[in-house]
User: Fold this.
Amino acid sequence: MPVFVGTHINKIDRKGRVSVPAQFRASFGEAISAGAFAMRSISGAQALDVFTPDAFAQLAASIENPFAEEHEDFTNAIFGASQHLSFDAEGRTMLPDVFRAFAGVTDQVCFIGRGNYFQMWEPQAGLAQQEEAFERAIQNRGAIRLRLSVNGGGAA
Assistant:
């Protein structure tokens, strides 16, 4: 499974394309040709959450009954408002206007790795939330538990 790490700021070109960071493209591996799925962040942040097709399929599979009343809002917010993003040969993608408007993105995009997905932000907002998150993480560091082995060995 790809792991997206780091923070990168890239410019949007005259045609509205932005280059996805090379490290993020490398994380896709062969799956880069299948593109990605983007949606307004379900966290409530004014950002976009971007998933590989496999991670997005896992998200869909995690909803046991997509027609259950309690899942209506989730399926509508996640799948109804998502869009497929394609990458060209140079690793650029075109951000739909509705996503650019939602995230407040104009001429640059801040890419922030979030483990098995990444986010796209207006740069100042992205860096500010990252700093706030870091401060909260320091305050709550005692609650962090790391699973170091899937076979039950070791935990922090």
